[in-house]
Design a protein that fits this description.
Helix content is 0%, strand content 49%. The chain contains no helices and 11 strands. Strands 2, 4, 5, 6, 9, 10 and 11 form a 7-stranded mixed β-sheet that branches. A 4-stranded antiparallel β-sheet has the order 1-3-8-7, with no helix packed on it.
Length: 128
């Protein structure tokens, strides 16, 4: 089993920044990919970004949703089994509960069913 704990959520004004962290513990060596998803009430969980612990898919680095490209950056600290999501230029539409997830395989990295473990979520609220 793998446990994921998110932190860093909060409330910020539009244009501001937040940094989310996701600390993984347990059998982390079995995981291949880490991802962030977000969800608002009444909507499906939405893919935000994914990264492999190795860093690449066939030479390609992290995968970002179009809605966050150029504003969000994922990074990882393999030694600490932690991934970070730096969110800049936040918009009110970024308001959501953000979930960290871990997958044993990187083949379905942009879909929530592709992940095997989930954190409890952290709320991000962006006010206009």
């Amino acid at each position: 089993q793998v446990q994921l704990v998110e932190s860093g959520g909060g409330e910020v004004q539009a244009g501001g920044s937040l940094r989310l962290s996701c600390a993984a513990s347990g059998r982390t060596s079995s995981t291949d990919t880490m991802g962030w998803f977000r969800q608002t009430p009444g909507k499906e969980r939405e893919f935000v970004v994914a990264v492999r612990w190795s860093g690449f898919w066939n030479g390609v680095g992290p995968i970002y949703a179009d809605s966050v490209k150029g504003r969000f950056t994922i990074s990882r600290d393999n030694a600490k089994n932690t991934v970070y999501l730096q969110m800049n230029s936040l918009k009110p539409e970024d308001t959501a509960t953000y979930y960290c997830a871990a997958a044993n395989s990187g083949y379905y990295a942009i879909t929530s069913p592709g992940y095997d473990y989930w954190g409890q979520g952290t709320q991000v609220t962006v006010s206009s």
